[in-house]
Design brief:
By secondary structure, the protein is of the alpha+beta class. It contains five helices and twelve strands. A hairpin with an 8-residue loop joins strand 2 and strand 3.
């Protein structure tokens, strides 16, 4: 059972003051596991604070939320590694993730890969998480953004293809893998520490439009230098 790809928990945020970005007022990074099912549906365009899970929301309307960042998933196996490095317990939801998984290589997932979770929900991997000041402040770890970036274990944002309900224990099945080799981790490294990987991202259709434009903008100077 432990090797099965499944959800360990479904986590919903509790609003709390954001002393790390005071202009936002609040943050929803404090995610807690929920008892029972949680409804999931596409939230619509960014700018409203809506995300996919009922009862959750984001407060940084410019950088978070909307269809392309509807759900954030992180692997328990990667949390365990950070737990050892940080020297403290990291409960499910500690990284602000909506879904804490086990048995699933979240960072090895392909952009555009689709997961069926439980009987109804289908999610599609859209992009990697980019760390921010709120994340660093939440973990109270100096230099956390740099360390998280170096490790290239960002976790995955997903969009909702089919709505439904999620609950702890639901099986996760990969039902589609696109015909390219761009993983969550590779795309993260390309836009952070390894710009030489950027051209390999150009053909990936499942990225959000803002990432496609970012990649095109950064690849042009690389082409000019050749």
């Amino acid at each position: 059972m432990d090797a099965q790809e499944r959800l360990l928990s479904v986590n919903v945020g509790r609003p709390r003051p954001n002393p790390w970005k005071k202009d936002l007022g609040l943050t929803g990074i404090d995610k807690r596991p929920m008892d029972g099912p949680v409804a999931v549906a596409a939230p619509g365009p960014r700018g409203t604070g809506a995300v996919a899970l009922a009862g959750d929301r984001v407060y940084d309307l410019k950088h978070h939320g909307g269809d392309d960042q509807a759900v954030y998933a992180y692997a328990r196996e990667d949390l365990d590694g950070w737990q050892t490095e940080l020297g403290r317990e990291l409960a499910n939801g500690s990284f602000g993730e909506n879904l804490t998984t086990t048995g699933l290589d979240v960072n090895g997932a392909l952009i555009g890969e689709r997961w069926r979770i439980g009987p109804d929900v289908v999610l599609e991997v859209s992009c990697a998480r980019i760390p921010c000041g709120t994340f660093q402040g939440w973990l109270a770890r100096e230099g956390w953004i740099r360390r998280f970036t170096e490790a290239a274990l960002p976790g995955a944002y997903l969009r909702v293809v089919a709505p439904g309900e999620l609950r702890a224990g639901d099986a996760v099945e990969v039902v589609h893998r696109p015909d390219h080799d761009v993983t969550v981790a590779r795309s993260f490294r390309a836009v952070t520490t390894e710009p030489e990987l950027l051209p390999s991202l150009l053909a990936v259709e499942a990225f959000p439009e803002e990432i496609k434009e970012l990649v095109r903008r950064r690849v042009r100077p690389l082409d000019a230098a050749l």
